[in-house]
Amino acid sequence: MKKRLVLTFPVNHVDEPVTYRLIKDYDILVNILNADITPGREGKLLVEMKAPRENLDRAIDYIESINVHWSPVKKTILLNEKNCVHCGSCTAVCFADALTMDRESRELIFKPEKCIACELCITACPLQLFELDFS
Amino acid sequence: MSKNKTIEEINDKIARGEAVIITAEDASRMATEKSPSEIAKKVDVVTTATFGPMCSSGMFMNFGHSNPPIRMEKVTLNNVPVHSGVAAVDVYIGATEVSPFNDKYGGAHVIEDLITGKDVKLKASAKGTDCYPETEIETLINRDSVNEMFMFNPRNAYQNYPCAVNTSGKMIYTYMGSLLPNLGNANYSTSGELSPLLNDPDFRTIGIGTRIFFGGTQGFIAWNGTQFKTTGPRNDFGIPETNSATLAVVGDAKKMSAEFIKAAYFEKYGVSIFIGIGIPIPVIDEDMARAVSIRNSQIHTMVCDYSKPDHPAIAKVNYEELFSGKISLNGKNIRTASMSSLVKARTIANQLKEAIAKKEFYLTQPVEMFPRNTKLNSLERRLEK
What is the ipTM of this complex? Predict the structure, then answer.
């Protein structure tokens, strides 16, 4: 199964090679989708983890044991579809394939369930029609 | 051989309600079954269109005189500086000019606000003269309060344009959108087989004075556009393989619609503007029928590396490949994305078709044809005269 998590590292958390452990000890396919880690500041890592459920459960126990906070991805991207001109600029940067163009109609198709909230579309849209939703 | 038609004869058919009008996409489909001769016989007008970001755009405007009058020197509209070096109360709003307070709001946004009828804050100052004593004015203006507002865009509707990629290791932000590192995407901007100047590649029917669909109303081609280039390489179908001809267009912005004129902001590049243009092409003979039959697979463009300062071409692709969603480059499949909207271009081509059918739009014989054998000069650095 696949899980998308936001891992929040405490300020002084630098010693533990978390990604290495997840891969090596729990045999998890880890895909880092976004990272914001600066020494001396709380860090955030957006990861997609793919493995059998049992491995994932054990990995989450491990994450908790080292005081790394985790939460399922709650961020979603909202699109103001009414004002979209269907230019396709956002599809250029959407690697999750949440934003694609219909081959025939050439209209933008947005599938929020595929979105990994990487936020690249927010800056790619020339009409600034995307926004982050934390609700 | 089908009989050649004049534009006058086609206009007579439009007036009688007998003209056969189709879009350039319909023409491309029709060409898979019919010969140019059959198409020339059957079809009178083919409508073409494009809707994409076109930086080289702007609007002239006359505010009317205040009492006491002012000969405006420094002028801003919603804090965006506008060019006021043209008489007392005339200005030119350049689409890409930005507000010093908000780099995502610029001339394009002022133009869109004015077109939609919104109030815009005008601030102007001057030294004051005997005939124009006022030195400062601050007021609100809008579409209905000003005398004239007409768009005059020096370079629109590029005949063809390169496809942009990035071979460097870091993301770059361009007027061709966000280019992901290591050939992560390939961005292009065209309506392909529907695009105006790709359907009349030798400008046999399009020229100075041609009536066009411009931003939701009727406008005109005023001149050949800036950077008008006719001497680049052409493919087997006579289509330029890279950036080539352009149009300078003029139209009454009071009658335009924000549906077809849209302000844009490209990250770390700046403000631009989406412009909607449609051009009807009279099918005067077999050669024009052949020209409007052009298909995406027969139109090529260069893939250029925007991570290098001179954007060198690294490959050649056709638009069928680009529209398919991916191209193959260096053995790698690369996702493609358009910067221009085919949905909007189709809307324009269909609206133009309907306007002609309803006898609201007649075709024009160009007053003057475009120049031939033009090439581009580059800007040399020299200090000695």
Answer: 0.92
